[in-house]
Amino acid sequence: MYRPKNISWSQANKYSNCGQQYYYQKVLGLPDRPGVGLLIGSLGDEIVTGRNGFWADMIETGSPQKDYAEEFRKDAQAKKQEVFDSLHEEEQEEWEREIPRVEELIKEYCVPDCTMHTHLKPLVVQREYSVRFRGLKHPILGYADLIADNKDTGRRAVVDLKIMKRKSNGGTVAQKYQTAFYAFAEMQANNLEELPYAEIHGMIKTKNPQLEHTYIKPSEDDVTQFLQLCLNLQFGLESNHFPLNRQSNLCNPKYCSFYEKCHKENSRGLDILKALYEKA
């Protein structure tokens, strides 16, 4: 029986979106082909909030140390040579369309006077948390993109970078749960009196690329709901219960590497359905 060393927000969220996808990827260990959005997002995260990125340089030296947009372009070109042939034609077009947009946004964001973050005093990038709750057998492991202090209010802030196709319009439920966990972990680790607030720094990959700043006030209920997602995952692991979710927006070949396998293995023919039928 599969037993992870720890669980994480991404694992709990994946199980919540579709237990069958989690089963194929984590339990069976089948190879998962990342989509273009994830590939581009990972490249952008590394340049902006990675340990050698913009915010790390600002913390260490107080000023930018390189042309981050150019670094992103070079990294994207190297990744393209590695994965481009494995992408569907639609994904190749998406790659060519979105890379220049993200490059433009990184150029706008990665300067000290960007109004998105002039109010922040950065403290640490990729803050690691390992949190335990009673009743949960596995520790929850997580990494916050950036921890900062608000220079205007003195409050601690959890900052999460998101590279997205569209605006989040006040923050998605997933963003609220994820940042609530980081806020709770930061509060406990530093004996803070209240939950830090959260900021989503969004890079929106629309035709006219734009930055989006979203303020989120994590609540006790957000932390509770995140914990419940983790408990649901634990129940699924212990009971070997991995329900599929065909209603998920991610249930399509573009976002799920196991789409065809799942549909083949979880479909029933008419003869089987008739055999299952019982008269009232």
Question: What does it look like?
Answer:
The protein is α+β, with helices and mostly antiparallel strands and 280 residues long. 46% of the residues lie in helices and 17% in strands. The chain has helices at 9-17, 19-27, 36-49, 54-61, 68-83, 89-109, 173-189, 220-239, 259-265, 270-276; strands spanning 120-131, 140-150, 156-164, 197-204, 210-216. It has a 5-stranded mixed beta sheet with strand order 1-2-3-4-5, sandwiched between helices. Strand 2 and strand 3 form a beta hairpin. Helix 3 (36-49) packs antiparallel against helix 5 (68-83) and helix 3 runs parallel beside helix 6 (89-109). The radius of gyration is 21 Å and the shape is globular. The model has no long low-confidence stretch (mean pLDDT 95).
Briefly say what this structure is.
This protein is α+β, with helices and mostly antiparallel strands and 280 residues long. The protein is 46% helix and 17% strand.
Please name the defining characteristics of this protein.
5-stranded mixed beta sheet, 280 residues, globular, 5 strands, single chain
Task: Please outline the helices and strands.
Blueprint: H1 9-17, H2 19-27, H3 36-49, H4 54-61, H5 68-83, H6 89-109, E1 120-131, E2 140-150, E3 156-164, H7 173-189, E4 197-204, E5 210-216, H8 220-239, H9 259-265, H10 270-276
Parallel strand pairs: 3-4
Antiparallel strand pairs: 1-2, 2-3, 4-5
Helix pairs in contact: 1-2, 1-8, 3-5, 3-6, 5-6, 7-8
Estimate the global geometry from the Cα principal axes.
globular
Q: Low-confidence segments, ≥5 residues, pLDDT <50?
A: none
Number of helical regions: 10
Overall pLDDT score: 95
Largest sheet properties: 5 strands, mixed
